Every structure is written in C-alpha cells, then in structure tokens.
C-alpha cells in the first residue's frame, strides 16, 4: 500500500513515561530507531533545564511529531520535474521503517497513523481503507441497489489488488 499509494503524512504519538525511557536506555535500543532518537533529543533539551530532576519525575510527557510532504512548496516548484521526489521517497522509507520496527509485545506505547495519498490509514494494529463514490439519490434517501453495486465493485477491487489478503 505504501509503494502503490505513496505517503501523505506520518503522525507519531508517544508517551515518555519513566519506565519507557528506562526501557529504551537499557534494552533493545536499536529496535525502536525513530522513537529512541526522539527520546535522545528530548533528554538533550531537558538536560538544559536546571530543574531536570523534576522533569524526570513527571509521569506524563506526550510527544506528537508529524511528517508531511509540503504540497504548497511542490506546487510552487512544479516546473522542476525532480522537485519533491526525494522527499516523497524519504516519507515512504520512514513509514516502512516504522511499520517494520513496530513490536506489538513492547510495553512502549507506540502509536502512529500513516496516511497514504489515497487517504487510507495505517494504524499499529489495523489498516483502514476507503474510497469516495457517488450513490444515486431517491428523494431524501439513496438507492439501495446503487449503493450495493458500488460496495461490490469496491470489494472486488480490494480483493483483486490483494489488500484483503494483507
């Protein structure tokens, strides 16, 4: 799905509890690459605070990081054929790494949402796919026959592309 649709955005959400920080420092440091890098950077920032000890005792520090492709800048540079291609590849690689690094048995609260260019969402434990269709109206309602027709077409498309097998 990542290769076929590309990536619109990656949202990383994590909680930095003391237990999670200790686990990152002591165990499996390499298996959580991006999360570990975030923790390292935050610790660097917090270390500059003279009251660093009080920050370590806080139980709930949340980090939200969003990686997106800048469509506005790409539009401004649309005459340059190669503009943005490398950025899109970086997003795809980051999304693949996040999915490959995800460990459902980890006590880290890894929470991410990867949004594809087709507006499909990839969560740690599920994938949501969607599409937009127009269903014929009948007064203030919709045609049940037309709705079922579009649903069958969408189901068959998902089945033929292998999305349902994943």
UniProtKB/TrEMBL annotation:
It comes from the Bacteria. This is Uncharacterized protein. It comes from Pseudoalteromonas fuliginea. The lineage of its organism: Bacteria, Pseudomonadati, Pseudomonadota, Gammaproteobacteria, Alteromonadales.
């Amino acid at each position: 799905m990542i290769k076929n649709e590309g990536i619109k955005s990656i949202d990383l959400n994590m909680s930095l509890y003391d237990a999670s920080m200790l686990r990152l420092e002591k165990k499996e440091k390499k298996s959580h690459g991006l999360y570990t890098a975030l923790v390292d950077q935050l610790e660097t920032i917090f270390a500059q605070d003279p009251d660093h000890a009080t920050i370590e005792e806080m139980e709930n520090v949340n980090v939200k990081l969003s990686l997106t492709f800048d469509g506005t800048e790409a539009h401004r540079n649309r005459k340059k054929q190669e503009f943005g291609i490398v950025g899109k590849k970086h997003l795809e690689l980051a999304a693949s790494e996040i999915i490959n690094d995800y460990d459902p048995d980890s006590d880290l609260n890894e929470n991410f949402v990867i949004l594809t260019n087709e507006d499909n969402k990839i969560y740690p434990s599920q994938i949501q796919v969607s599409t937009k269709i127009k269903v014929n109206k009948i007064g203030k309602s919709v045609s049940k026959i037309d709705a079922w027709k579009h649903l069958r077409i969408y189901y068959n498309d998902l089945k033929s592309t292998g999305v349902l097998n994943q």
